[in-house]
Amino acid sequence: MIWLVAGTSEATKVLQKLLASKMPVVATVVSSYGAELITHPFSAALQKGYLKIHQEALSREAMDSFVKKYQVQALLDLSHPYARLASENLIDLASKRNLPYLRYERPSTALPKSPYLRVASTWSEALTYLEQAKAGEKVFLATGSRILAQAVPDLQSRHLVPFVRILPETDQIAHSQDLGLQPWQIIAMQGPFSYDLNKALFVHTGAQWLITKESGSPGGAIEKIQAALDSKMDIIVLKRPSLEYPQVTGDLEEVIKWAMQRQTKEIER
């Protein structure tokens, strides 16, 4: 059984190829929305048993039980580029259990050069750039929901007005409200977003700042950043976490080939 950690849109493309060859795969996702994205297009594979879906954010200890339960023979790490802890745990698991591991790292996108664009390695560094912001200025957070518990209070303590763009999931909306955000500060939409839609949202909110992640082309990074530049906004891009992967590729075809080879070796045993 191949374990595919699905945290990016590319995971669906990989699943399509693997399941076409009737390869047994167990895919893990963190959210109910992620489970839905996999369930609908691959309902036939689920019914026939080629695909199993597990929705849970697995701890390092839970990963050991998971590997035993599903008799995992190899790990495909397609977790989100910013899910550092998940990848660290998977690497440790693969090393301790002597399991083949391959990381798919979404290719980075070259950022435009502009005096209005700054790159931060950490949230703390991003806050140093925000020292230039004036009280009452609006900050558009296009970072995903996981950073909100830290980011929103930090912005509010500086008398800045945060706007958050999150997935239209009940738990994410409730989490945003629990942080003290009002409905007019919450944009619940599914991306990626076009240049025009990004710009329309920036104009609608009147934001002076954009804080985002370098999510690559599938995440709509360039459309988002260019729309902010053309809206005369200041931009802070949070860099991807740096991690030493034992085996990594940015080529989806290589990912599929690697999985096929692992399956062939398992059959030959």
Automatic annotation (TrEMBL):
Recorded metabolic or biological pathway in which this protein acts: Cofactor biosynthesis; adenosylcobalamin biosynthesis
GO biological process assignments: cobalamin biosynthetic process
Keywords: Cobalamin biosynthesis, Oxidoreductase
EC primary class: oxidoreductase
Residues making up the signal peptide according to the UniProt record: none
InterPro entries: Precorrin-6x_reduct
GO molecular function: precorrin-6A reductase activity
Stated name of the protein: Precorrin-6x reductase
